[in-house]
Amino acid sequence: MKLHVKKGDMVMVIAGDHKDKGKTGKVLKVYPEKNRAIVEGRNLVKKHTKPNAKNTQGGIVEQEAPIHLSNLMVMDGKTPTRIGRRISEKTGKLVRYSKKSGEEIK
After folding, report:
1. CA-to-CA distance for 70 and 11, rounded, in angstroms?
2. Where on the phi/psi map is residue 59: left (φ > 0), alpha (ψ -120 to 50), or beta?
3. Which has the closest alpha carbon to 73: 19, 1, 31, 16?
4. Which residues contact 89 (CB under 8 A, 6 or more apart)?
5. Where along the chain do its domains lie?
6. pLDDT score recorded for residue 32
7. Class of the 10-80 domain?
8. What residues form DSSP beta bridges with 72?
């Protein structure tokens, strides 16, 4: 199944937690099987960790948790937009485009 969000996209959180709603961030990882994505600096949760080789002290670590794709909207410059797919006239390949401006999204 094709998704409207890819790794590296700038997205806006359009629903969910009140502290993150309306804010933007970069997609770090996408989980297509779960329809979720991790957005940089958004949906932060506190995780209690035991001491290990990486973190010898242990303690409470803040990290990003996955957000459902239906709560994310791709940014086209400074505005959020819906995504469509069409065949490019130049390359003949399937490309994503902004439904608001009609421009191709890289």
Report:
1. 11
2. left
3. 16
4. none
5. 10-80
6. 96
7. mainly beta
8. 13
Q: Which two tokens stand for residue 100?
A: 């608001």
Q: Within 13 A of 50's CA, how many CA atoms are on the CB side?
A: 1
Say which residues have a Cβ less than 8 Å from residue 41's Cβ, sequence separation at least 6.
25, 64
Unique residue bearing structure tokens 């600096």: 41
Is there a contact between 84 and 96 (Cβ–Cβ < 8 Å)? Answer: yes
Average pLDDT per consecutive 10 residues, the chain (106 residues; last block may be shorter): 92 91 96 96 94 90 95 94 93 93 89
* Tens-place pLDDT, residues 26-45: 999 999 999 999 999 999 99
Sheet strands (E) in 1-106: 10-13, 24-31, 36-39, 44-49, 59-64, 67-68, 72-76, 79-80, 83-87, 94-98
Q: Residue 104 gets which letter from DSSP?
A: B
CA atoms within 13 A on the CB side of 98: 18
Q: Do you know the residue count of the chain?
A: 106
Question: 27: closest CA among 37, 35, 16, 15?
Answer: 37
Considering the entire predicted model, what is its pTM? 0.85
User: Encoding tokens for residue 98?
Assistant: 């902004």
